[in-house]
């Protein structure tokens, strides 16, 4: 496999559930990102990991918890979400933590909170 | 708050027509990128521009970075249905990873 792979593609969860989103990149990149894409809003940067260290937490509620066990994998753990958290969650990677190198995005996980 | 405003928000045109999409800000960006996102997929990088006044061409797509590095445009010649998608600009205002995405232009090219 090549590129950035996200699983699952679709997720429906209740507000009391706990679930995790997974992202895997096979590009040898050392920076990984979580973005949220909601209707009628620009992409919102949530978390940035560079060399497996979290370097950015963009005022994201604690019900979202990222984990980066190695440079190829990134998780987003979800618990007690709200309906307004329904969105497309995109994972991306880059050669270094800087947009100049370009981001490779996964296909996203479409999350619906009921 | 730094914002990247894109215009138009929506555009529906016939195959073969030309179009221009704009990305504007009051901030200076050290680099700017354009992405295209198709339904059900993540954005795909089209181009990166880093020098004020820079023009880059990718087949029928022409990208320009403003002289002051505050704005950019994307021009598509002879649009095709395959050009349909959401076009996003993204700017790096400080030379770090703290960049922002534009509001997006949703393009539909009708056959």
Commentary on this structure:
- The complex is a heterodimer of chains A (114) and B (111).
- By secondary structure, chain A is an all-beta fold.
- In chain A, 0% of the residues lie in helices and 56% in strands.
- Chain A is globular and about 35 Å long.
- The relative contact order of chain B is 0.33.
- In chain B, the strands form two sheets. In chain B, strands 2, 4, 5, 9, 10 and 11 form a six-stranded mixed sheet that branches.
- Chain B is globular.
- Chain B starts with a strand and ends with a strand.
- Chain B has no helices and eleven strands.
- The A-B interface holds A 4, 6, 31, 42-43, 45, 48, 50, 55-56, 90-92, 97-100, 102-108 and B 4, 30-31, 33, 35, 40-45, 48, 50, 88, 90-92, 95-104.
Spans of chain A of at least 5 consecutive residues whose pLDDT stays below 50 are none
Q: What is the tally of beta strands of chain A? A: 11
Query: What sequence of helices (H) and strands (E) makes up the elements of chain B?
Result: EEEEEEEEEEE
The helicity of chain B comes to under 10%
The tally of strands of chain B reads 11
Kindly estimate the percentage of residues of chain B that lie in beta strands according to DSSP: over 45%
The low-confidence parts of chain B are none
Interface with most residues: A-B, 24 and 27 residues
Q: What is the CA-atom radius of gyration of chain A, in angstroms?
A: 13 Å
**In angstroms, what separates the terminal alpha carbons of chain A?**
33 Å
Name the average pLDDT of chain B: 92
Distance between the termini of chain B: 40 Å
Q: What portion of residues of chain A is helical?
A: under 10%
Write down the overall mean pLDDT of chain A. Answer: 90
Structural class of chain B comes to mainly beta
| Envelope shape of chain A | globular
Class by alpha and beta content of chain A = mainly beta
CA gyration radius of chain B, whole angstroms: 13 Å
Q: Estimate the strand proportion of chain A.
A: over 45%
In short:
Chain A is mainly beta and 114 residues long.
């Amino acid at each position: 496999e090549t590129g950035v792979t996200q699983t699952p593609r679709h997720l429906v969860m209740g507000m009391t559930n706990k679930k995790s989103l997974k992202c895997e990149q096979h590009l040898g990149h050392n920076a990984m990102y979580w973005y949220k894409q909601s209707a009628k809003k620009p992409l919102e940067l949530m978390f940035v990991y560079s060399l497996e260290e979290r370097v950015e937490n963009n005022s994201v509620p604690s019900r979202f918890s990222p984990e980066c066990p190695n440079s190829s994998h990134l998780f987003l753990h979800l618990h007690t979400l709200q309906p307004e958290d329904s969105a497309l969650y995109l994972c991306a990677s880059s050669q270094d933590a800087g947009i100049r190198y370009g981001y490779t995005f996964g296909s996203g996980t479409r999350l619906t909170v009921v | 708050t730094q914002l990247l405003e894109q215009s138009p928000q929506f555009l529906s045109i016939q195959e073969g027509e030309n179009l221009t999409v704009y990305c504007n800000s009051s901030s200076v960006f050290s680099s700017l990128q354009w992405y295209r996102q198709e339904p059900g997929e993540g954005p795909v990088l089209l181009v990166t521009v880093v020098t004020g006044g820079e023009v880059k061409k990718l087949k029928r797509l022409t990208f320009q970075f403003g002289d002051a590095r505050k704005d950019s445009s994307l021009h598509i010649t002879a649009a095709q249905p395959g050009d349909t998608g959401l076009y996003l600009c993204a700017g790096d205002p400080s030379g770090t990873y703290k960049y922002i995405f534009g509001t997006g232009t949703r393009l539909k090219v009708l056959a």
